[in-house]
Structures are given as C-alpha cells and as structure tokens.
Design brief:
The complex is a heterodimer of chains A (414) and B (107). With 414 residues, chain A is an alpha/beta fold. Helices cover 30% and strands 26% of the residues of chain A. Chain A contains twelve helices and 18 strands. In chain A, strands 1, 2, 8, 9, 10, 11, 17 and 18 form an eight-stranded mixed sheet that branches. In chain A, strands 5-6-4-13-14-15-12-16 form an eight-stranded mixed sheet. A two-stranded antiparallel sheet of chain A has the order 3-7. In chain A, α3 (87-101) packs across α10 (371-384). Chain A starts with 5 loop residues before the first helix and ends with a helix. Chain B is globular, with a radius of gyration of 15 Å. The two termini of chain B are 28 Å apart. Classes of the chains: A alpha/beta (414), B alpha+beta (107). The A-B interface holds A 239, 241-242, 250-255, 298-304, 308-310, 342-343, 398-399 and B 1-2, 15-16, 19-20, 22, 35-36, 39-40, 42-45, 47-49, 52, 54, 70, 72-75.
Chain lengths: 414, 107
Amino acid sequence: MKRYSVFAIAREALRYHEGWERAWRAPQPKAAYDVVIVGAGGHGLATAYYLGKNFGITNVAVIEKGWLGGGNTGRNTTIIRSNYLQDPSAAIYEKARSLYETLSQDLNYNVMFSPRGLLMLAQTHHEVRGYLRTVHANTLQGVATEWIEPAKVKELVPIINIDGPRYPVLGALYQARGGTARHDAVAWGYARACSDMGMDIIQQCEVTGVRSEGGQVTGVETTRGAIACKKLGIVVAGHSGQVAEMAGFRLPVEAVALQALVSEPIKPCMDVVVMANTVHGYMSQSDKGEMVIGGGTDGFNNFTQRGSFQHVEETLRALIETFPIISRLKMLRQWGGIVDMTGDRSPIISKTPLGNCFINCGWGTGGFKAIPGSGWAMAELMAKGHSPLAADFGMERFREGRFIDESVAAGVAH
Amino acid sequence: MLTLTCPYCGVKAEETELAPGGEAHLKRFGPGSTDDDYESYMFARKNPKGVHFERWRHAYGCGKWFLAARCTATLEVFGTYPAQSKEPPAELIAKIKAKRPGWEGYK
C-alpha cells in the first residue's frame, strides 16, 4: 500500500492523479479463515483492525451483506464524547475517544477528528443536578468534563437563546475534547488498513446460516458460498437478532428506527456540538456548513430505515426555541437507521452460548463514538477470551441483574 | 404515518395519538420462577423482521390498551384486536398467512 502524504499528493498532481491505488482489495472469499467478522461497519472493521494490530491475527475475513459502512456507520450524526455516568461506560467510551485523537495518524487516513468541544445543555433543574453528578463521576473516572454556567454557554454558542420561556439554559456539561469525525472516513480508513494487513473485505455477501459442530462454531453459509472459520464475530447492529437466531441463541435486543437530518449549508455559525436532551435534539455544523441534527427514536420495532415524521417535527419544534436562527432553514435530507436497543441501553460485547462465537451489539443510538474502543475490546475478547474493557458488557448481566444503566443516567436514549 | 384502528372505540387512530407498548402475549414469570424464565420474560424479545404482534395504547383517545399485528419490515398493519386475547384471533392469522405465504405462523 502506498502511504498517503503531502508528497503523494504532489507526486500525483504531476501525473494527472493516475497513480492512486484502490484503498482496499475486493477479493473472492477463500474457503476458510481463522476469524470471520460479520458486518463491515465501523465496529466490525475496527475489530478486524485491532485483531491484526494488537494480536497479529491477520487471516481474517470481514463479510458484509451490503456495502462497506452502508449501515449505521453512514447514518449517524458523527458525535464523539465520553461523558457517561457509569464506570464501565466511561472506560470504553473514553478509550474510544482517546483512540480517535490519533486515529488519522494510526490509519494513515484522515478521519477528520475534530475535538471542537461538546455541550449537553441543562434545561431543567433536574438536569442541572444530573449533570453535576456526571461531572463528579467523570472526575473520578479521569474523563475531562466540567460544569459551565449559562454565560459561558452563550460565549461558546453565540446563536443560542439561553432564556427561552419554556426551556431556559441553566448551564451545561462541557467536554472540551469531545467533537465529531468524518463517519465514512472511519470505515474507509479501517478498511484500507485491514486490507493492507492482508485481510479480506467481502462486500455483497450476506450470511444465511451459521455452521456449528459439538457446540463450537465451524463457519458461516453466505450468498457467496460457505466459509469456514475458527472464530466468528457478529457485529451487525440492527440485524443482530436475526444473525443470533441463525447461531441458535436469543438476544435481549429490539430494533427501532433512529432519525437524523441535515439542513442546507450556511456560513459557519456554531463551532461546538450542542445536545439538548430535555427536548431531545442535538446539533452540530458540518465542514460543508450543513446543520446536522439528530432526533429521537420511534417507540416501536422497525426495520425500514425510515422513521416517523412527527419525531422530526418534535425535534425541530424544540430546537427552534433554543436556536431561533434555524427557523428559516430548509432541510436537505432526512434518513433513519436501525438501532439495536438493549434493556439497559448499554452495549453487549460478549461470548455467546455457541463456542468461539462472539457478539458485539446493542450500541443503540450511540455507536459511532465508540467504534475504536469497541473494536479494541472485541478484538481482545476474541483473541484472548477476556477483555477488561468488555468484562462488564457480557450478555449474562441481564440474568444476573448487573445492569449498566445508562438509560436512567442520561434520561434519554444516547 | 402508522394508522391503527382501535378495537374498542373504532377510531382510526394515527401514530401521534397512540403509545407503543412492546411485544404482546408475553407470559409473565414472577417470584418462584426459574432464572431462565424470569430473564426471558424481562428481556428476551422476538424482535422479528416481519410479522410482529404488539401492544399499543390509544393514549390520546379512549385510553385503552389493545393489540395489533404489524410487519416491522414494511410497516403494513394486518389488524388490531382486544387486549384480553390470549393469542391472536384465528381470522387474523389466516389473513396474515394469505398475505405472507412464507410466514412461519404465530408461535
């Protein structure tokens, strides 16, 4: 693989850009691999990447039923933060955030990580108390967050209306090194690095069955033939339940649609990420100038990748009060992704009842920010059978009552 | 927009006046049951990509709970029936089978 650099740009500029290589190969599936990862989204590719980088396991195939990063990796609002309340969450999300800091250098691929700062607005007294508690918890966890007063919020976000009649801004939980990254580039960068290590990324290859023998996984059946493997990682987000059923176990997961939308591009007006959880909307401005807006989930099971119109309406109605400037904006695009929600709104990174079959799912509405940490922990779990970062996220926690209850901590989906 | 007919008041209710309530026909397990049964009752859900039987409440209408059969892959609604039903009515099952010949049936 030729490295990307300023010299590469100069070299290609002098020869009509004809020397750029394909970022990753498109191989035919082999008959057998050491490890097969199902799902070439961010989490699946990151798992493969850290298997190779941290454990030297490179006889790996990542198989994907659609195209690379075409699911929730390309459908999120690209926000990165780690200001969680519970210790296991803070540990894995902070690991992910810290890996994002150097991911571009690590992958030799510009993922455009922009630690521009992130505010979670407190708009009720209940939220003020909740976020003060989170700040204290984060201090103990070593996650750099702070509580800021309304005047500071106004200074950071000049377009905000801090004394709205219904939901005044009473302060905010501020994470200075939170921010955004280019979501597609994260998938593409991992894919290029995996391909460079000799891994096969096989797109348009849907898993139709899981083969096992004596309680151990032996391979998968796919639309492009059977592929044998010693270890299997299922990292398929919204369709986790379907693949788990093929592997013969059930998951405490339900699929719902989460929506987001972007406005027409406007001049730079907001250089931080703002989340308003009481009214449930969050907003940042992309490098192209579009306001990227995340909305709420539907309450019912849904696999259609489109959500209900009234949720868009609710989100915008609420955001307009806090950001009067957006009232005349036209919305360009709106889309939905299928997110896999667990009972405690925390992910599952776990062994399964089927031997040598591992699952990484349940990231719900907040998976993008976790991609590097999730891949790191999943790779360690698959390689060594145990990972400190993943230890608390086992699927047996539901039976044992050891919830990582972020749904209560955040008060909303996250 | 999702439209469900409330089997009690007969109103064709749209999504904004309804509250979703998750999977229907869950068998409840309480004190004295096995850990497996209790876990399964609390957390395991069918979550099918296809025909789904679920609970809804006509929250901004008559206020009553009812049950519905809906396809999670297309959002098609097959029908609604009263919450007191132990299982989906036979005629509704027949109607779904006619529309979805490959459907494995209610189980």
